[in-house]
Every structure is written in structure tokens, then in C-alpha cells.
Amino acid sequence: MATMATSAAIDLAVRGTLAFRPLSAVAGVEITGIDLAEPLAPENREAILAAFLAHHVLVFRGQHLSTERQAAFTLQFGELEDHVIRLGDGKPPPLVHVVSNLDEHGKPTAKPYSSGNYFWHTDKSYHAIPSYATLLHAVDLPPEGGDTQFANTAMAYAALPEETKQRLAGLRVVHSWEASRLNTGNRPATEDEKRDRPPVNHPLVRTHPESGEKVLYIGTHTSHIEGMDRTEGRALLAELLAHASQPQFIYTHQWREGDLVMWDNRCLLHRAVANYEMAKHKRVLHRTVIRGTAPPV
Questions:
Q1: Phi, psi (5° rounding) for residue 25?
Q2: Strand 172-175 relative to strand 260-264: parallel, antiparallel, unpaired?
Q3: DSSP E strands: which ranges in the chain?
Q4: What's the rounded Cα separation, in Å, for the pair 85 and 272?
Q5: Per-residue pLDDT averaged across 115-121, rounded?
Q6: Are 180 and 220 in contact (CB under 8 A)?
Q7: Is the pLDDT of residue 38 over 60?
């Protein structure tokens, strides 16, 4: 039995029934030889978790999952997380919910109900206990475009000058749903949403709980840096985001119908890319999110 690939220099490796093909040196590995509608064998679950730690983005091709099957697959890795956003009827979305560019009539639009996913972020950093992983399942795609980009914030941190790392040490950043809505130009947070998700603070430089790597924990959900002048702090956050989203730190995923993509929110930023005719073509994905652990105080 061959060992699993842990480097993009190895084109393909096999572990049991699974085949692993790295997609880039930044992040991403394609996994084939598995039907996610079936419960995972223990050895396959362990192989998937090892790949997740090594590559951060897992791409399972050709999966055709009902929402129930996607939930069942997700639950094999942790607790499903709820969502703070309220829909048009005032209710939160289901645990397996739709991410799309559709309007209330099911038609594609260039101005969907929420467009926050088109900005660099790490999912639910505005939670006191932020997310471990997110899973997106491609249901309906434009004929081209509609990509998702991932930025490796461990690589971005490692590339910073030592004096900058020293400057960032010990700084804490306030994250909030209210700030996220303002930063992305979406409708303001409702009073119910603000009550459900009050501001929280996290280390600007977070330690990945499994790899031990230092990562930049930033993105569009941030408000300001504690103890720093607001203007100066926001300028520093913008500078770090621009640094982390440089091409050398990015993997761009070009979706295929049936892809299920799972990624590590603890060391990645991500965003959808509006590189398609949003008002003409549907882009529909089903999303689940796994609850994580609190960054150290």
C-alpha cells in the first residue's frame, strides 16, 4: 500500500481505495475512489483527516448528495453549526443551506440577498468558538467561472518580515457580524442578529491547533484591533489582507458539477469570484459548517 501524497511534487498516491492528487503547492488535493453518500470506513476517515491537515482543501469529485446525505457526511467530522443570518421571512437558514446568486423568485441576479461570500473571509470568525471546516457541494454551476479562491494564511504569515511578526505578536482583533455586514455593503445586521452574535476578539496571529503553525486570522468579519487607534488598526488589517491575498498564497478552485469541497477555516481565507454572468447563469451550492474550538486567549 502506497502512502498518501503530502507534497504537490507527487502526482498521485493511493491509500486503500482512495486516490489523492495534489492540486497546488498552496492548498488543495483531489480525492477519488469514494462515494460520500455511504458511511466512511474508519481507515478512509483517517486518510481524509490526514489529507485535510496536509492540504487544507479537499476536493471530492463526482458526488451527488441529497442535503440529508451531505449532513450525514459532515457529521462524521464534527457538530453541524447554525447560522446567524435571517432570511426574508426572519427565520435562520437550515443547517444544510443554499449559497446562490438567486433572487426570491429563483432567478439569477447580479445582486443576491447576501454577497458577503465574495469578500475574503474565514467562516464565522465572529463566533466565540469559530468554525473548524466548511463544506460546499456544487449543485448548479455557470458554464464557466464562478470560482472559489483560497488564501493560505500560514504561508502568508511565514513570509512576513521578522519585525512585522514581532509587531503583531499579542495583538487581538474584534470580529463581529455587524462589522461584516458593514464591510461588505450588505443590509445592516438586525437587532436580533446583533444580540445572537455580539462582538468577540481573537488573536491576530492564531496558532493552528493541530499543525502548530502560526496563521493570520483576519478577513472581512473584522472590526478593529483592540487597544489601537481605529484608523491605524483598520489600515494594518487591510495591509495584512492585501499581503495574504497575493497570488503566491492562493489556490483557485474551478468548480465541476458534483464537486464537494471541504476546507480548513483555521488557516485559510476564501472568497467566491464573480467571474461569470451573474444575472444570466445560476450558481447554486449546498453548504454545511462544522463547529470548531476557541483560539487561545
A1: -80, -15
A2: unpaired
A3: 13-15, 18-22, 29-32, 57-60, 97-100, 131-140, 148-152, 172-175, 200-203, 205-207, 214-216, 222-225, 250-253, 260-264, 268-272, 284-291
A4: 18
A5: 92
A6: yes
A7: yes
Please, are residues 256 and 263 in contact by the beta-carbon 8 Å criterion?
A: no
Q: What is the sign, positive or negative, of the torsion defined by CA atoms of 232, 219, 188, 130? A: negative
Position 8 scores a pLDDT of 37
Domain architecture of the chain: domains with CATH? 13-291 (3.60.130.10)
Cα separation, 10 vs 165, whole angstroms: 32
The confidence score (pLDDT) of residue 128 equals 94
Say what the pLDDT of residue 295 is: 83
| Structural contact between residues 166 and 136, judged by C-beta atoms closer than 8 angstroms | no
Helix, strand or coil, per DSSP, at residue 136:
strand
pLDDT at 4 over 90: no
Give backbone dihedrals phi and psi of 175, rounded to 5 degrees, phi first.
-115, 140
Record the cell numbers describing residue 104, joined without a space.
426570491
Which stretch of 42-56, 75-89, 127-141, 181-195 has the lowest confidence by average pLDDT? 75-89
Say which residue, 188 or 149, is predicted with more confidence: 149
3-state SS, one letter per residue, for 36-69 = CCCCCCHHHHHHHHHHHHHHCEEEECCCCCCHHH
Residue 5 in this model has a pLDDT that exceeds 80: no
Residue with cell 493541530: 210
